[in-house]
Design brief:
The chain contains 3 helices and 13 strands; from the N terminus they run H-H-E-E-H-E-E-E-E-E-E-E-E-E-E-E. It is α+β, with helices and mostly antiparallel strands and 177 residues long. The protein has one domain: PCu(A)C copper chaperone (Immunoglobulin-like, Sandwich), CATH 2.60.40.
Length: 177
């Protein structure tokens, strides 16, 4: 039984990170240019997260929202772009938020025809005069054991810690992919 539960949780986590086409791509493109924060030589823009709805959970890994008393998905994922205008690389070291019990930087890769999601324990580099894009099926921020319903339109705080630029907090808007 534990293996089935583990497989169901893994399927949900990967579905939160996978890319899905959307009818609202024009709105998504406009949102990706929205600047959420600036710290040092870094600009963070286009921060968004997937909603925690039963449809996104695929019937797996649901729990009751403590504040609203309704069933929600336990996991979500957040995405954003970090632009580095400086002449020195920086590194995203950690992420945190009050909306989830566990918040981690992950990377999704393909290996032997299988999609694999892994914790990025040593952070992710933002190259000098370059960008780091957190997007579905790539680098992303996993929100696990979400504490409240993340309905479309909800805005929550996400703190990013960088090796050189320090910490900054951004507003993340929940929307459909």
């Amino acid at each position: 039984m534990k293996i089935y539960t583990l497989l169901a949780c893994a399927a949900l986590a990967l579905s939160a990170c996978s890319s899905m086409p959307s009818a609202s791509s024009a709105a998504a493109d406009a949102a990706s240019s929205t600047v959420n924060a600036q710290v040092g030589s870094l600009t963070i823009r286009g921060a968004w997260a997937r909603p925690t709805t039963a449809a996104n959970a695929g019937g797996h890994s649901m729990h009751t929202d403590n504040t609203a008393g309704k069933e929600i998905a336990m996991n979500s994922a957040a995405y954003l772009v970090i632009d580095n205008k400086g002449d020195k690389a920086d590194r995203l070291l950690s992420v945190s938020s009050d909306v989830a019990e566990i918040v981690e930087l992950h990377e999704t890769t393909m290996k032997d025809g299988m999609m694999k999601m892994s914790l990025v324990a040593d952070g992710a580099e933002i190259p000098a005069s370059g960008s780091l894009t957190l997007k579905p099926a790539s680098y992303h921020i996993m929100l696990m054991k979400v504490r409240k319903d993340l309905a479309p339109g909800t805005i929550f705080k996400l703190t990013l810690e960088f090796q050189n630029a320090g910490k900054t907090t951004v507003d993340v808007t929940v929307r459909e992919p």
